Predict the 3D structure of the following.
Amino acid sequence: MLREWLPASYHVRTKGRILAHDGAASRQVDVVVLRPGYPSKLLDKKLYVASGVAAAFECKLTLTASHLTQAKKSCGRDRTPGTATSGNALPGID
């Protein structure tokens, strides 16, 4: 469904990890949206270079307070250094 809303130049992949600039890999994410121009030979490797990731999502059947707390902790950790944010990704969650 997400593919229908994005320009064709963005690639949507499921189940993968994001490789940070320091070589650390994230926990597994459920959906990764890759920027236009992401190398085609790397599209199906399931380890995605952070600078090529436009968005990443984790899907839950049931959402609990502990899931939100963990999501808040992961938000900053999995971002590429130097990318802009507009405030707290999960306001009100400490």
